[in-house]
Structure formats: C-alpha cells, structure tokens
Amino acid sequence: MISVYVSLESVPHGEQRRHAHGLLTECLAAAGAEYAFEKTPLILGEQGKPSLAERPDIFYNLSHAEGVCACFANRDECGIDCECVREYRPRVARKVFSADELAALEAAAEGERDMLFFRIWTLKEAFVKAIGRGIGYPMNTVSFVFSGDEISSNAAGWRFAQFIINETAVVSVCTKEKIRQKQTKIETQNKRLILNIKKENAK
After folding, report:
1. For the range 23-30, what are the long-range contacts, defined as Cβ-Cβ under 8 Å and sequence gap of 24 or more?
2. pTM for this one?
3. 39: which residues sit within 8 A by CB, 6+ positions away?
4. Are the beta carbons of 124 and 134 closer than 8 angstroms?
5. Mean pLDDT of residues grouped by 10 in the chain (203 residues)?
C-alpha cells in the first residue's frame, strides 16, 4: 500500500515551499528516512529531479500549489502533482492534450470542464515528474481515458491513481508499482490527510 500525504492548509505564498517540505519530512519519516528542509544531502538528476543522497533505496516526489500540497515515498521512481480546481485555459489544453483528450474535454458539460482539465493535467504532470523530464516533455504524447472511476493510459509500465478532494482539489500519483488505477472522491473537513492507495489484488 502507498500512503499519500496531503495538506489543504492555506499558507502565504512565500511560505508554501517550506510548508510542503515540512509535510515531506513527515512522509519520509514514516518511510524510515530522515529529512530536513535545506539540510539533508540531495542528488539532482539530469533534469533536476532530487533524490536522497544517503538513502538511494527510497524515492519520493513532492508537489505544491495554492491551497494544496502532496507527497509520497516509494521503492521506485514516482511522481505526484496536485492542483486546486479553477477556470482552465483552453490554450494550455490545446498545447498539451492529445486529440482524444481534447475531444473528451469539448464533449464534457460546460460545468465539468474545469475539473476534467485538472484531472488530466495532474496525471500528465505526475507522469513527467516520475520519468524526471518535467514540462519540457511532449505532454500531448501521453494520453488518459476515464471510464467511471477507472483510469487508463498509453504510458507503458506506469500506473496511476487520483484523488478528488471536496470537489475542489485534485491529487494524482504515478508509480511503477501495481496499484489499482482508479479515481477516489473524498469529502472531508480535515486539513491534513493520509490517503492510501491499494495494490492490485489487495483486499
């Protein structure tokens, strides 16, 4: 099982990064690794993706945006992205969405398009962060399809899960572990969450 740490706390823009790394400290402690913001030695990959210099057996990823931050640790490469849902920009969708994703977005009811955009966007971001490429990767080449709460993708060898929290925030995860590829909706008043992702065939 993978545990995803999420904070919905509202913090000033200048403090978001430190707040997110505080959450990461909790997450890595649960995984058995010590971490202190701007103190723990890190190794940067070719595209700047950090890893723990003294714990090469533990992989992690962190994301933060206005009103939400999220992270998780894993035993293999991984990626996470989070966003609060807001009005989407069609120009961005045309640039990074596949033809099928654009068609799905245009076919959606007007009131559902913002959520659909950020569901797809965060999955793409989680993927490119997992592979260590960042937004320079041709994001329109990886495509996602939703059927009910199931998620499918053409990203061979990677698995995805997604949380929709209070219908206002989206957290998406990418990993090589054999997790259940699904979306989970959560309603909560809590500002700190630990969300669990089950592996395939787990009861």
Report:
1. 23/62, 23/69, 23/70, 23/71, 24/60, 24/62, 24/71, 27/3, 27/60, 27/71, 27/72, 27/73, 28/52, 28/58, 28/60, 28/73, 30/3, 30/73
2. 0.94
3. none
4. no
5. 93 91 96 92 86 93 95 93 95 95 95 96 96 84 94 94 97 92 94 89 60
What whole-number distance in Å separates Cα of residue 64 and Cα of residue 43? 20
Residue 201 has what pLDDT? 66
In a domain, 7, yes or no: yes
Q: What is the pLDDT of residue 45?
A: 81
Residue 29 lies in a domain: yes
Tally the domains of the chain.
1
Structural domain span for residue 90: 2-197
In a domain, 202, yes or no: no
Residue 102 backbone phi and psi in degrees, to 5: -65, -40
Q: Please check whether residue 203 lies inside any domain of the structure.
A: no
Given this model, what pLDDT does residue 109 score?
94
- The CATH number linked to 182 is 3.90.470.20
